Amino acid sequence: MKNSTSLTSLSSMDKDLSLNFLSQYGRASPAQRSSVSNPPSARMVNNNKIQEDANSQLQDNPDGLPHLSGKKRQKRRDLITVNLSGTRYEVVRQVVEKFGFTITKDDDPTSYLIWNDTFVSPDKISELKPYQHINHFPGMVEVTRKDSLARNMIKMSKVMPEEFNFVPRTWILPTDYSVLQNFAKEMKIKRKSKTFIVKPSNGAQGHGISLYKNAEKIPALEHTVVQEYIDKPLLLDGYKFDLRIYVLITSCDPLRIFLFNDGLVRLATEKYLPPHESNINHLFMHLTNYSVNKQSEFYDKNVAHDIGSKRSIRYFNEYLRRSDIDGSLLWRNISDMIVRTLLLAQPHVLHAYRMCRPGVPSGSDSVCFEILGFDIMIDRKLRPWLLEINRSPSFGTDENLDLEIKSALLDDTFRLLNIKVSDKRRNIAAQKAQAQKRLFRTSRKVDMQDFTELDKKKINNEKRKEELTELLTRLRKIAAKEDFERRHSGQFRKIFPSDDPVKQERYCNIMTQTFSLFLTGRGASMQKEIQVNYNNKFKEEDILDMLAECEADEKELRLYPLGKPPRGPKPLQSMPESAIHHPENEELDDSDASLTTTPRNRPRSSSQIQLQGQKTRGSNGINTCPTSGMIPNITGNCVVQRPLSHSALASGGSQHRSRSLTRASSTNKLAALQRSNVDDNFLNSIAKERENEMIMKTLISLNEMRIKFPGKSDVEAELMLDQLTENWKFHKPRIASYWLVKLDSIKRRKVIDIVKSNVRAVLQRVWRTTDIDNLRLYRIFSRVFNRLLWSHGQGLWNCFSSSQQTWESIFSKSTENIAAEELNCCRRIVQLCKDCLLIVYKFADEAKNQNLNPNIESQDLAVQQKENKQTNASVGYTAVHDLKANMSWSPYTPYSQRYNKLYQHSNFSTS
């Protein structure tokens, strides 16, 4: 009889026991517990061996701790555990062991991965931690149960009949029994013979399926689904067959769908004949379910992927090629059908998932994933038909083909899930951060009426910055996830979201309709979320520009609370602010001087005149070079280097440098460093000079560019642009209405793309490379193009104002230094975009006038031109086709010297 191990007996031990030892007491071995709980002072030990082992244990472990080393405990804690207590399939266990995961012995609810063959309750999904994964989504029953799929398809086919016509005509009994009988009577009147297949609403594996030629014999009181039988299927070696296609859903918020490139082709075991009263009960002929046909004596067990009653989709693709059938078109239709089906389920799944996971932001790592088995049949016209969807497809491996396909499916699935040990620590930290954010969030409602206009602008600006920051974070996370999926997809192929923008736009429209139908009242709110998650047209560079614009607006609100900044251009922080006269510079060469001239001497804004300060002329007439960030070379020209920082400019630039640097430059140590780095500096200077030379050539090519007007010469186009500039007050409201109101975002981008495509061609020709996107100069141009399209085209329209150039703020706010030549290239691009807008406007205006008067005779046209000329004279300007140019002129001739008589002042006298 063993003594009681009470606290009194423990306190009487010779060995002092700490609380740590008491906590480890229950995990010690029986021999250790016996040696500790029965010390020599308490009783005599009968077994000397046990006593010797206990003494040696205490000598080796003086703290009294059991022999469980910290390394083993740490290693056990860092293992990825998998709970497979809910599955009966051995192939799942084999693939898990292949990945090195640890299979728990019991039903461990804290495992990283939980696999179940049956339905999972929403409560279990709600209890999952962020680092866990389970192989089922809540709400998926809306498409995996036969009656639910039929009901949702019927509803959606009434809204979008052309999109949801890939399921045979279906009736749900007993509700639609009278509708079914009426349809059968109509078919009899039209003398059309129809066959009906009856399936249990919640059946599986082919149980309870029967065929009927006469709809009156179908029982009305059972919960069944009746479908129109596909009596003209595509045959394979004379047998009817269907396809078991595997689809993986890795996330529902946002939705991500992958199609497995392999699967099963399941054949019937009797040669197919059209349904007749004589063979209507031959299920081995009409049904393709494996669980039904394996009972047939004619079932041919698979020994290779191309023979037997069960074959692979790889063999099916080879059969299509041998039969001269367009397999790529067929698979595009199948993948499109799968996406539309899951878009139908998305409102139900997303709603159920968010109910199970409240407070989890959209875009977080999903705790659910699912492998679905789509059963698809193809008719003789190669049209795919959806039969049913299996929520828990069988992973049985009765044949080698099953083991090959299903093990590869599970292997690629676990690889895409990307389960890591660090997920637990990372997700728990993210959860704490979200909880802290909710804790410090103010719940008090703010009355905007108590705020001034300045406060409202600040609040709106902060709100927009938060939205843009969240969108930027989401885009970067999606980009990282897509990059991982591309590298680890294996045999999976992503089918949603689609890489085709036209198809993705169509999918977004379908999803919007499904949310409006099944989640009444939330369609409008979900529309914005759908556009952000699935059809976002903003890129990372666009969002960064918009964030820079928000910061600029915020600074302007601090500097000018009244919203009225002083007139005049803002100084660019990346440009030199001072110029020092160098007497050794005699005169700039002709090539550099030609760059300061513009192809047309149209009036420039004050900001344009100020910003063309790369070369200035001193008071004594000698050309000088700005020294902030520049040094003169041997020939006297300016070589642009990195501009100084703001602090250096504020302190006076190079004139106010520290004297310690001058003294240090004269020491031997610095001289040795300069000699050691002379080669690197020489190479860097060569590369810099080469880059500057290419930028100068680019600027020359950009200055030579002209925007073509269809049907007119360059001279006529120049005349037209000058006329619009001279009469700007008249044309300004019309051009503003055309650009900002009439044109949508797509057409505005097309106008800018006219210049963008030509600029790309110029860069390819000058830089002699096809990889234009990696050029630093083109990245700068891209930022300018994006800014011109900013705020629905307001960015380009602001360039027509002489008070400010808002596009230049993207450089003044950026930490990246922009050289003077690069900035001049950007100015030329902005001018080309302005010219392009004016020419597009004029072309649309002339086309409109021609459409309004298409049948005017030549005499009437001359009269109308004369009247227009008189009318234009009355308002103080002359139309471009009435201007008479001098004989000696060029595109560089000032506008006031081109014409003999420009304005008509006869109607301006006051009475």
UniProtKB/TrEMBL annotation:
SUPFAM superfamilies: Glutathione synthetase ATP-binding domain-like. Pfam families: TTL (PF03133). Gene3D superfamilies: ATP-grasp fold, B domain. One of its GO terms (cellular component) is microtubule. InterPro entries: TTL/TTLL_fam (IPR004344). PROSITE patterns: TTL. Keywords: ATP-binding, Ligase, Microtubule, Nucleotide-binding. Residues 54-73, 582-627 are annotated as: Disordered. Residues 593-627 have a biased composition (Polar residues). Belongs to the tubulin--tyrosine ligase family. This is Tubulin polyglutamylase TTLL7.
